[in-house]
Design a protein that fits this description.
10 helices, 289 residues, Rossmann fold, alpha/beta, binds nicotinamide-adenine-dinucleotide, elongated, 5-stranded parallel beta sheet
């Protein structure tokens, strides 16, 4: 079996995969590969799949499969696996890090001190306790966020198109969530339904000064509408780990809009998660016939 590791995995993985065959990280050898390991960087498009005539298995280390042409892979008889359970805690902790940093003015506190300023009087904080967190999607990651939010004394509500009841949160309609939430955290995959779901119309239904955290997918938000809402103060802060493209285009308006808190798509990049993904990849290969 020839295995191509196309994106960044834990450094121990190549050695662990040697029991299954020859392992390379040279992308020019895609034509020989029977198995390709990807994260979010490699795009398994129709052209990519056509360049790999020996491909039998694509393993996406992570959750979202929007970088794989699933239909074309199926047509070519290629099996596609992801590692959905491995990343939940890693992404939830990053979402919560964003949630905590905003009311605690962590980044402004740090930046002003770096500039030699003492902004003790200006940096008024607020608390998460007693506030309402609205989760869009109540899947694996959102449920981990819900646990952490409850530990901080937040009321947790959620909307999920496919889930009516959950122990993790009080379920409600999308509109009700938008009306009630002080903080919104986004946890859906990118689909035809979720693309652009946060837009001028949906933002108008939110509370004034709402905070939105997005560790789901960048394209679930209409960027220009978010920029407008940030400028008017309707949205107090937009914290995002996910972008229209990785990395965002130089002229992405979010990069230069105040009150955007940014991370470079590192939700799944914890050391522990990369080890868990490696374990799952080994299990998938053991069971692959
Ligand atoms: P999951 O499948 O467990 O949960 C997704 C939930 O979204 C499901 O409950 C589903 O019913 C719900 N959903 C689907 N369409 C919806 C819609 N139109 N409206 C409302 N809810 C909808 O997945 P998960 O493991 O929780 O991951 C969620 C998403 O997080 C992934 O699809 C991916 O886009 C993103 N993610 C980001 C990172 C990162 O690095 N930032 C890492 C992993 C995953």
């Amino acid at each position: 079996m020839k295995i191509l590791i196309s994106d960044a995995f834990d450094p121990s993985l190549p050695e662990r995969l040697k029991e299954f065959g020859e392992v390379t990280d040279d992308p020019s050898r895609v034509g020989e590969a029977n198995v390709v390991l990807i994260r979010s960087k490699t795009k398994c498009t129709r052209e990519y799949i056509d360049s790999a005539p020996n491909l039998k298995l694509i393993i996406r280390g992570g959750v979202g499969l929007d970088n794989v042409d699933l239909e074309y892979a199926a047509e070519k008889g290629i099996t596609v696996h992801n590692t959905p359970a491995a990343s939940s805690v890693a992404v939830a902790e990053l979402a919560f890090a964003h949630l905590l940093a905003i009311p605690n003015r962590l980044i402004e506190g740090h930046n002003t001190m770096k500039k030699g300023e003492w902004a003790k009087k200006q940096l008024k904080r607020t608390e998460l306790m007693g506030k309402t967190l609205g989760l869009i999607g109540i899947g694996r990651i959102a449920q981990e966020v819900a646990k952490r939010a409850k530990a901080f004394g937040m009321t947790v509500i959620a909307y999920d198109k496919y889930v009516e009841k959950s122990d993790a949160a009080e379920m409600m309609s999308f509109d009700d969530l938008l009306k009630q939430a002080d903080y919104i955290s986004m946890h859906t995959p990118l689909t035809v339904d979720t693309k652009g779901m946060i837009n001028k119309k949906t933002i108008a239904k939110m509370k004034d000064g709402v905070v939105i955290v997005n560790t789901g997918r960048g394209k679930c938000v209409v960027e220009e509408d978010m920029v407008e809402a940030l400028k008017s103060g309707k949205v107090a802060t937009y914290a995002t780990d996910v972008w229209f493209s990785d990395p965002p285009a130089e002229d992405c308006p979010l990069l230069t809009t105040p009150n955007v808190q940014m991370t470079p798509h590192i939700g799944a990049s914890s050391k522990e998660n990369l080890l868990r993904i490696g374990d799952t990849v080994v299990d998938i290969l053991k069971n692959f016939k």
